[in-house]
Design goal:
The complex is a heterodimer of chains A (about 110) and B (about 140). By secondary structure, chain A is mostly helical. Chain A has 4 helices and no strands. The longest helix of chain A is centred in the middle third of the chain and has 30 residues. In chain B, about 70% of the residues lie in helices and about 0% in strands. The chains are: A mainly alpha (about 110), B mainly alpha (about 140).
């Protein structure tokens, strides 16, 4: 009931679109993780070094997206900034690590 | 919307030198005015779209090498996959800086800074597409 009346704050569904963008990004990490883990399962065990963090990042993003949706709506309600530089930096870093893992996997597997 | 800085964010920036180094000095929250939240969220979504572009390039590059049958040109799959992955590394690195510069411009109510990233990705994909065409053509078009 309360949630319904608070829902007015997400005018234009900005927070929802952002939540969906996070979900798609989490799925992107999951897809990259599957490719790296597949190779690891086919004998290149050392690729777990990149595959496992990629999978963990995917899981964290997908879980966090739920929570962050509510945080975003409440921050907007309080007139506070929703910018999250640390989160953005962490995701860019994770994406870089996954890309590096992909490069290494392409260069050093048969 | 008032420009109240997030106290948590502020103290973090003051206490972590590496963070100040990474973000290029002052906390974003100390600069300018808090923009319309819709712009901040749009900037975040744009950043995420770039990250997905990078991830798609990694997945594409790795998939070409792992899953596509070998071309008649030796090492053809790697010739195709490696540029895609290198492009992904560049996009990942550039996307954070771009988010940060956009957020800064929003706070200062300035026009968004120009970026060469779309141009770079377009050129990169053009090259990769051209390479793929050449490799497929050299492989005789039919199955081997």
């Amino acid at each position: 009931m309360t949630r319904r009346s608070e829902g007015v704050i997400d005018v234009g569904l900005q927070a929802e679109r952002t939540y969906l963008a996070w979900t798609r990004t989490g799925l992107g990490f999951a897809a990259a993780a599957v490719l790296l883990l597949r190779r690891a399962a086919l004998g290149e065990r050392w690729l777990l070094v990149f595959g496992v963090p990629a999978a963990v990042t995917a899981a964290l993003i997908l879980l966090r997206a739920q929570w962050r949706y509510r945080v975003t709506v409440s921050k907007v309600q309080q007139g506070r900034s929703t910018a999250a530089p640390r989160l953005v930096a962490a995701i860019a870093g994770a994406s870089g690590v996954v890309a590096f893992g992909g490069l290494v996997s392409v260069l050093f597997t048969r | 919307m008032s420009g109240t800085p997030d106290p948590l964010e502020k103290s973090y920036a003051q206490n972590h030198r590496w963070w100040r180094w990474l973000t290029g000095g002052d906390s974003l929250q100390d600069v300018g005015e808090q923009p319309d939240y819709r712009f901040t969220l749009a900037n975040e979504r744009t950043f995420l779209a770039w990250i997905r572009t990078a991830l798609a390039l990694v997945a594409g590059g790795v998939a070409v090498v792992q899953l596509v049958p070998e071309f008649s040109v030796a090492g053809g799959r790697r010739i195709l996959g490696i540029p895609m992955i290198l492009l992904a590394i560049v996009v990942s690195a550039a996307s954070y800086r771009r988010w940060q510069r956009n957020e800064l411009a929003l706070r200062l109510n300035q026009p968004l800074p120009p970026s060469r990233l779309p141009w770079l990705v377009a050129i990169g994909l053009l090259l990769v597409g051209g390479l793929a065409l050449v490799l497929v053509a050299l492989s005789g078009g039919g199955g081997k």
